[in-house]
């Protein structure tokens, strides 16, 4: 990855990190869930907004607010905590774990469209799991595991946890 390619996400992470510390717990939760649907350039626009009301209105104008708040309180808590469940939509899965490490098309299933999403997680010393999207791994990880999620017609139909990466 070239310098320009990693510099913008790195700077964005620094800016978001400081801003997240000043947010209410509710705003922090919905932003962490919804940012997967927002491009880096748009995230910078969101970061420049001064008040929580402005930032919330920005999410509503882009149709993102209801992706999170259409769910009941218990489901929103599960999304934020990464407790993915059978029956969830693709959007709910993305809000919880982000994009998968790898996507595969599946055939021979009863659904009109089936996909297998492969999520790879690394666990740090404090016990926090981070989902990987690219091939970059953290040499400080103390554990790694994989979760294969099958979606039938954009609904989570199967979740299989593996102790190691395939």
Proportion in helices? 40-55%
Round the Cα radius of gyration to an integer and report it.
17 Å
* Structural class label: alpha+beta
Number of strands: 5
Average pLDDT rating = 86
What would CATH call the class of the largest domain? Alpha Beta
Main beta sheet strand tally, sense and closure? 5 strands, antiparallel
- Strand coverage percent: 15-25%
Number of helical regions: 7
Give an overview in words.
With 166 residues, the chain is an alpha+beta fold. The protein has 2 domains: 3-70, no CATH class; 84-162, Beta-lactamase Inhibitory Protein, Chain:B, domain 1 (2-Layer Sandwich), CATH 3.30.1450. The chain is built from 7 helices and 5 strands, in the order αααααααβββββ. Strands 1, 2, 3, 4 and 5 form a 5-stranded antiparallel sheet that branches. The longest helix has 19 residues, at 3-21. Residues 1-16 have low confidence and may be disordered.
